[in-house]
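Cross-check.
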Amino acid sequence: MMGKVVRMYAIWMLALASGVYGTALVYRGIFQGETNNLIFGIPILLLGIWVTGNMWASARQIYRKQRAEGKAV
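Predicted model, tokenized:
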């Protein structure tokens, strides 16, 4: 169980880093006019948002399941 939790947090941290890096690329693409940064930044940003959203949805689903079973903290 502990290994799964560590893996989940590692994936989540990589997703957050991806979102931050993608945001930086999009910002540079918009304000400095570098088209390549927009081309690469938008998919990286969307990947970070997508993975983070899926992690939150999974966590909510697990919490609700545990709460229904009476095991929630």
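Residues 35-69 form the longest helix (35 residues). The chain has a mean pLDDT of 89. Passed to J.P. for a second look.
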